[in-house]
Amino acid sequence: MTTMPKKPKLTRETIVEAAIELIESEGLDSLSTRALGNRLGVQAMSLYHHVESKDVLLDLITARLATMIEFGDHTGNWRCELEAVSRSYIDIARRYPRSFPLLAARRFNTPETLPVLERILSIFRRAGLPPAGTAASFRILGYYLNGAGLTEGATIEAERRTDFHLQDSGFLEGFPVSGETVAHLALPNLSGIFEKGLEVILDSIEDEIRLTRVNRPHSV
Amino acid sequence: MTTMPKKPKLTRETIVEAAIELIESEGLDSLSTRALGNRLGVQAMSLYHHVESKDVLLDLITARLATMIEFGDHTGNWRCELEAVSRSYIDIARRYPRSFPLLAARRFNTPETLPVLERILSIFRRAGLPPAGTAASFRILGYYLNGAGLTEGATIEAERRTDFHLQDSGFLEGFPVSGETVAHLALPNLSGIFEKGLEVILDSIEDEIRLTRVNRPHSV
DNA sequence: CCGAATTGCCTTACACCGTAAGGATAATCC
DNA sequence: GGATTATCCTTACGGTGTAAGGCAATTCGG
């Protein structure tokens, strides 16, 4: 049945891993089948025996990033668990700023990512939220995390660049409020801002749960 | 000096307008210089006399979308103003779901977009927040709005598709929590969720402003 | 009023992209 | 040891962004 002729140089995993490395070092636009093959010591078309298309490759990258989400200890404290998931998620954006847009843009609806979705949604459900409340709170938190990840990633990218920095471009002339604000939008400030916004959203989820308990004390 | 030989068929504005139409009808990936030229009855290279490169074109599209933000009446009520800006922003995502990712990914640091940034930041400042607080609140709200816009746009896109719908794909088998939640994540529910999250964030800004007033009652 | 200059659009060309089709090689099984 | 089959390669096609240069129409200087 499972004959295995010729020892393989390539696997799905090594391809995905190399693709992420390539994106991080050269940028998302520079991920081409030829460049990726080159990095793996292989011709472009060889990749197609392991991955059906570039679009599927992007899905696999998304899945690889999604499964990096760490859930921490299963404490039974939903707030700690959501905090852990959220920090783990933003950490992915910080470590893979150029790949993160894939994670933010694509849904968690592949077989590889659904288990992750399931675990996250379960935290909300165990916290006492009904399906509708779970959907709402999940979306709101997700909006925030994706936006934060994208912006932090873009900021990392922008501050790495040497060719253009808004601060000394002169563009800010005539925009005094922007001028006095940009310094506070720099990378070192963003983690504090992230934590602050995260607490705001978790507080609101806490309110929602309390409200649910009052109105439907015994249902789940 | 400014001789004007030959009446032009093309202007920057018509090019940008056509590009947005093309993206919305065919998708972001289908925006090519040749396709765009074709839509304008012109060869691809003719565009380059008006726009330096495709990247600049994307910047112009971003600026065009950004300037669609409506600020409503200048009431002096910061909360109403931020609500108006936020709703106007998500409206852009809903009307231009396939172009919106450009707006979410690119910064407001071109000459065309800076006036918009300035007006938005001014709302926070006039509300009584110092520069650092302005930066934080602006970012948090921005994270939320960008995430919401992206997800709503992606949802619109996904529900338009006929080839794949998660609900009847069978993928959800074995993921009961996801299964009972997806229905609540459908497009009709998203506007309610958006409003809810928006109020949460505006409430937190209100708290922040109040706190600022207490600690530094007379400074701006 | 006519040549010169300039602008707006076009033609051609190049390197790169994703990928369809089919070929060569080497490890395994019967 | 011959057939099978998984892996990788070669070639080729139509698409991409865009650099270089050409040509025609309009306006200006004389």
UniProtKB/TrEMBL annotation, chains A, B:
Keywords assigned by UniProt, alphabetized: DNA-binding, Transcription, Transcription regulation
Molecular function per GO: DNA-binding transcription factor activity; transcription cis-regulatory region binding
A GO BP annotation: negative regulation of DNA-templated transcription
Matching InterPro entries: Homeodomain-like_sf, HTH-type_TetR-like_transc_reg, HTH_TetR, Repressor_TetR_C, Tet_transcr_reg_TetR-rel_C_sf
Gene3D superfamilies: Tetracycline Repressor, domain 2 (1.10.357.10)
Pfam family, one: TetR_C_1
HTH tetR-type domain: residues covered: 9-69
Location of the DNA-binding region in this protein: 32-51
PANTHER family cross-referenced by the UniProt entry: HTH-TYPE TRANSCRIPTIONAL REGULATOR RUTR, TRANSCRIPTIONAL REGULATORY PROTEIN
Protein name per Swiss-Prot or TrEMBL: TetR/AcrR family transcriptional regulator C-terminal domain-containing protein
Species lineage: Bacteria, Pseudomonadati, Pseudomonadota, Alphaproteobacteria, Hyphomicrobiales
